[in-house]
Design a protein that fits this description.
alpha/beta, Rossmann fold, Arc Repressor Mutant, subunit A, five-stranded parallel sheet, four-stranded antiparallel sheet, 8 helices, globular, binds calcium ion
Length: about 230
């Protein structure tokens, strides 16, 4: 993706500088601020931001979690990738961050190359979503034909239940995005579908079995949820 503008919101100057340096060295344009309040000012200036890296614990009127929620209700940024940085490592905390609308998270202390890889995944996901109405999603030997609700593994059709298909599609349309069980439930619950956190795990297990050799496209994030693996 060309000319990507990343907004970094982090109050610890050392970390902020390191992230900025790393992202700039990758060719991205970077704006870095130390609080959510300053970040709001950047957005109010009308600057186009492609991706956000947000620290959870921030000084000022809003923490990173609240800022992320605010972004998700903003018409320009409701689907922009957000990577949350957090010193909170408990699954419950991380789930709250993801439920607030973060796409991915990274816990402190972290390796800059790991952050860079996560950014790359999110930007690729963004490109994928910008290719409007992509009917065929291809990941190695896995092919998903969206409109036909058809899934092929190594050119062989795999029969999925409608819930399994919905789960797979949700994941595959946003590689690198960590989905919590609540997010699966709110996305696939429908008139004829009733799912709970536990049944999500059962559906995923069934789905993996059917995907056979391609089962590893669905990654388990222990205590948190699931993520569709990035191809690279
Ligand atoms: Ca902080």
């Amino acid at each position: 993706m060309k000319n990507t503008h990343i907004l970094v919101v982090e109050d610890e100057q050392d970390i902020r500088d390191l992230i900025s340096f790393q992202m700039k060295s990758e060719g991205h344009q970077v704006t870095a601020v130390e609080s959510a309040d300053k970040a709001v000012s950047v957005l109010e200036r009308g600057e186009k931001i492609d991706l956000f890296i947000i620290d959870w614990m921030l000084p000022g009127s809003m923490n990173g979690l609240e800022f992320t929620k605010k972004l998700r209700s903003h018409k320009s940024y409701m689907s922009s990738p957000v990577i949350m940085i957090t010193a909170l490592t408990q699954p419950d905390n991380i789930v709250s961050g993801l439920d607030a609308g973060a796409d991915d998270y990274i816990t402190k202390p972290f390796d800059l190359t790991v952050l860079q890889a996560r950014v790359r995944v999110q930007l690729r996901g963004l490109e994928l979503s910008q290719k409007t109405a992509e009917d065929k999603l291809i990941f190695g030997n896995l092919l998903i034909e969206v409109s036909k609700c058809r899934v092929l593994v190594q050119k062989e059709e795999v029969t999925l239940t409608s819930t399994e298909f919905k789960i797979l599609l949700l994941l595959a349309q946003k590689p690198g995005h960590v989905f919590t069980r609540d997010q699966f439930i709110s996305n696939i619950q429908g008139d004829n579908v009733f799912v709970t956190g536990r049944t999500i795990d059962t559906h995923i297990a069934g789905l993996r079995k059917k995907l056979g050799e391609e089962a590893n496209v669905i990654e388990t994030i222990r205590g948190i949820g699931y993520r569709f693996k990035d191809e690279s």
